[in-house]
Design a protein that fits this description.
Length: about 220
């Protein structure tokens, strides 16, 4: 049985993350540390930091979200891009790890006290690609029993993340979530335009219009 790209990413990420739980050396070598990129040209950290997580809860949350949404997005990409669908999906995930951290890098490149880890930015890209493909699919948070159409959930998610980012509290890199989400949408639109001609924008608009017109 052929493994999906989503499952391969989850397996690799889980394996490296579990290694990091018991090895500070692994964490230090892979974590996103802006001065190491700026001064040491360790560009690999943009990607490697997505393979490690702070704890088991952090890992499970990200990988659960990736599994739930990634399978659908990967299959959607296969429909849209044909034989290249899996490759396009993998490229989106990897480049999202980089893109979501560019604003963080610009802000903290000389900050020797800043570190960031986790796949949240890339997972956000996958989730928002899902939202753009299936905007009427009901979505919600695990511990809040309220489900709303994906396009509404995405809008609220970006607003809340922006507020939390401005407050700059806690250890969560909300900037990566925001830019990862926007990158997922931008990548999908660009890939459809260049590689398939699939009308993803008009498809999104028509679905949202049909929902709003039902009231």
């Amino acid at each position: 049985m052929e493994l999906s790209i989503t499952l391969i990413i989850i397996i690799i990420t889980a394996a490296v993350s579990f290694g990091g739980f018991s090895s500070e050396k692994i964490i230090n070598e892979l974590i996103f540390y802006p001065p190491a990129v700026n001064e040491g040209r360790q560009w690999y950290r943009f990607i490697s930091c997505g393979l490690i997580h702070a704890d088991i809860g952090h890992l499970l949350f990200n990988m659960y979200a990736l599994y739930i949404f990634g399978i659908h997005v990967e299959n959607g990409f296969i429909v849209i891009f044909g034989n290249y669908g899996k490759i396009v999906y993998l490229v989106m995930y990897i480049t999202a790890l980089i893109a979501c951290l560019m604003p963080t890098y610009a802000k903290h490149k000389n900050d020797h006290n800043y570190r960031s880890l986790g796949a949240s930015g890339a997972v956000s890209a996958v989730i928002f690609a899902f939202i753009f493909l299936y905007p009427l699919q009901k979505m919600g948070l695990i511990f809040i029993p309220v489900m709303v159409p994906g396009f509404i959930f995405g809008f609220l998610y970006l607003i809340v993340s922006t507020i939390l980012e401005k407050r700059a509290g806690g250890n969560v890199n909300h900037s990566a979530h925001i830019w990862g989400a926007l990158y997922g949408i931008g990548f999908l639109i660009a890939a459809c335009y260049v590689l398939s001609g699939y009308p993803v924008i008009s498809g999104f608009i028509e679905q949202v219009k049909s929902y709003l017109g039902s009231f």
